[in-house]
Amino acid sequence: MSNPDVLIVGAGPVGLNLGLCLLKQGLSFRIIDKKSGPTTSSNAVGVNCRTMEVWESLGFIDEAIKRGLKVHGTSLYSDSELLNQVKFDLIESKHDFMLALPQAHTEKLLLEELAKNGITVDWEHELTSINQSPEGVTVAIKHNEKDDEFSYRWVVGCDGYRSSVRDLSGLTRACHDLPLHFLMVDAEVSGEISTSTVNILFHDKGMIFMIPMRDSIRVVVEISTDEEYKHLKTCEPDIFREIVAKRYPKINIGRVDWSSAFYIHECLADNYRNGRIFITGDASHTHSPMGGQGMNTGIQDTWNLAWKLGQVKRGEAADTFLDSYSLERRAIGHDVLERSGKLTTMATTTNPILKRLRNFGIHHLADWDIVRSKVANGLSQSNICYENSPLVKHDQVRKSGQLKYPEYQGNKWTLLALNDSKDQLPSYVQIVSVKQLPLHAHYCLIRPDGYTAMYANDITEILEYFRKNHFNLK
Ligand SMILES: Cc1cc2nc3c(=O)[nH]c(=O)nc-3n(C[C@H](O)[C@H](O)[C@H](O)COP(=O)(O)OP(=O)(O)OC[C@H]3O[C@@H](n4cnc5c(N)ncnc54)[C@H](O)[C@@H]3O)c2cc1C
């Protein structure tokens, strides 16, 4: 039996999601993970609307929504006083909310979806070496104290912050640690707290952050500059209760289901591709959890990579086309790092002038639709349109206001054409007749991941686009 096309290293949320995306593209794959089984603890809680649009295409969004809790906005407080509530209703998606679904539940759901297709993870299998040649990638996988060699066409590292795939394949990254230190619990919380919004409380001793979930509430406290508690390396429930009681006596922390402590590292890989080897998720970018972007960004990495691998595997595009994965997704990783870094600085600042400016801005500006829309669409990642990519005619796309068409995403390109077009196009393009298009154009080309590529008035412009981007036109 021949080896699968792709080896996925790491069965966290990103590796599991990649498996489902590859299934949609008709690629065969194997998933390994060095752990003994699925995660039971949960870092990520917030699933954003763009991830939900991907899960809709993969066929399990209704189940995900059933298992999670819809969160409709953010309530911001300063020293116990409500500054403002920012609703998510201006998110440009039918999923105009954040889904609170603990990471362990997300991973369970993804594992179940894979199992429906007969796919299981090879647990306790660790990648220990990797070498590539023009023909393929040879890896050593350790299982039961024994190393075996296997070859694959492509290897994708979804193996997290300490990625072996990244380090063993010579991909580099730039990192720095932020001087910030947090404790967190999933707990029963009573008192004055909104259970339909995220709650952010700014406080002189450090912020408190709360996300409602179906069965409990995620509470995070910052202790970096709190002289009394900043030395703590682990999170003891009683001490956690004490910190919260001192800073925000209007709530009470009851039963604690899980507790942890974390620091923030900011890292970005210099390239997400080295030949036949790719990295995604935390292996390529890690940053502050403020804004809930890490897992969501990783899931979007896999959505971007899978259709590109599919086209190259089917001979529809040249191998060079795969460079666009790193080009497009690294730019997004860079933006996410910058945005989450700014949000963290804003939330944790100890500078009295910045604090006053922040609170003034939230109190007075956060009601403006233009501000709400920018914040909500930025955090939900629905404002992405790959503006610096050669695969997107960015000026047209921004002008049209139609950055994506999630209803047409899948494994083919879509050409929206006025009236019944009989144009001859490659087999990977489906034609859909429409009555009207933005910019008075005759055609709109949509990528398999749902993003708008370009508008045109003549079919030769579309063919030229494919030729220029290394596609096979037959
Ligand atoms: C406190 C906190 C809160 C967060 N909240 C959010 C949030 O609300 N929303 C959000 O989007 N993100 C959030 N994040 C970030 C999110 O948790 C991560 O981005 C996400 O877990 C990354 O997933 P991953 O699959 O890339 O990596 P991981 O989850 O780290 O999975 C990597 C897997 O690879 C395996 N592995 C490693 N090396 C090897 C090897 N050599 N061979 C085989 N297997 C290997 C590991 O065992 C592991 O299972 C949060 C993070 C923290 C710390």
Automatic annotation (TrEMBL):
Gene3D superfamilies noted in UniProt: 3.30.70.2450, FAD/NAD(P)-binding domain
Keyword line: FAD, Flavoprotein
Keyword Nucleotide-binding applies: no
GO molecular function, one term: FAD binding
InterPro entries: FAD-bd (IPR002938), FAD/NAD-bd_sf (IPR036188), RIFMO-like (IPR050641)
Entry coiled-coil feature ranges: none
PANTHER family membership: BINDING MONOOXYGENASE, PUTATIVE (JCVI)-RELATED, TRK SYSTEM POTASSIUM UPTAKE PROTEIN
Record protein name field: FAD-binding domain-containing protein
UniProt source species: Aquella oligotrophica
